[in-house]
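Risk register update: the risk of archive-format incompatibility is retired. Evidence:
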Amino acid sequence: MTAIEGKQLKLSEIKELLHAKIFAGEDKLDITAKAGTASDLMSDMLTGKTGGVVLLTGLCNVQVIRTAVIADVAAVILVRGKRPTQEMIDQAREHRLPLFSTPFTMFTSCGRLCAKGLRGVEEKPPAPAVPPYGC
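Archived output:
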């Protein structure tokens, strides 16, 4: 997977944009995320180049933190106002991984980040859209 050409955002900008609460990594807000990804399948996070990306997920368990550490993501953002468990917070702090929660849905969160220029990770850039016959 590669990052599609786009703007990089600092975690402080992402925090503000998503009205996010921070649970770990308060000292890491100057880190820049080069792209974003959204998944509830942690196995997907281990199949590509996810280093330096921000992960949005609806999963709220310690496996998210463990996977994020292995995948070298820049930060984890829990969507739909989910609150991390104390074990998640402790693991995130131990690994110096920023951990946030946003009140927005995953769809809205991705849209807000994309509207500010942050792009996703893709196998390859998408082909140009071809209009259907009769258009």
